[in-house]
Amino acid sequence: MFDAGACLLALWTLRLVHRDRLYVGYGVIVLLGLAAEVMVASFGRARSALIVFTGMTTSLSAFGVVAALIAAFLAIYVLSQLTVLSNRLTQVVQELAITPLDDAVGHDQRHSDRPVDEG
């Protein structure tokens, strides 16, 4: 049942990436996390090693720790991408603010016959 749910989630993730509804980087993180969870859940030795590695007493709590780590990693990645986007937006706004008005407005608009609004 776990493998079927992981396969459905992987297919949904790939579909979202293909339709440009999900950033490729986020899709890769989700798919790698799913692959890791399926590998650990499918093999008894890997499950035992995960229990020892996380220091938990049950495999369910160990999976919870791994899921929380994946969620934290994804949140950090999303926030870093938002920071990059914010920095780019700030740069564009600053460039627009220092661009002279004569360059921003076309020749036809500067010398139109329409009276200038003095208000």
Report on the structure:
With 119 residues, the chain is mainly alpha-helical. The protein has one domain. 80% of the residues lie in helices and 0% in strands. It is built from six helices and no strands. The chain is elongated, with a radius of gyration of 26 Å. The model has no long low-confidence stretch (mean pLDDT 83).
Ordered list of secondary-structure elements with their pairings:
Layout: H1 2-18, H2 24-42, H3 44-54, H4 59-98, H5 101-104, H6 107-110
Helix pairs in contact: 1-2, 2-3, 2-4, 3-4
How would you sum up this structure in a few lines?
The protein is mainly alpha-helical and 119 residues long. Helices cover 80% and strands 0% of the residues.
List descriptors.
elongated, 119 residues, mainly alpha, 80% helix
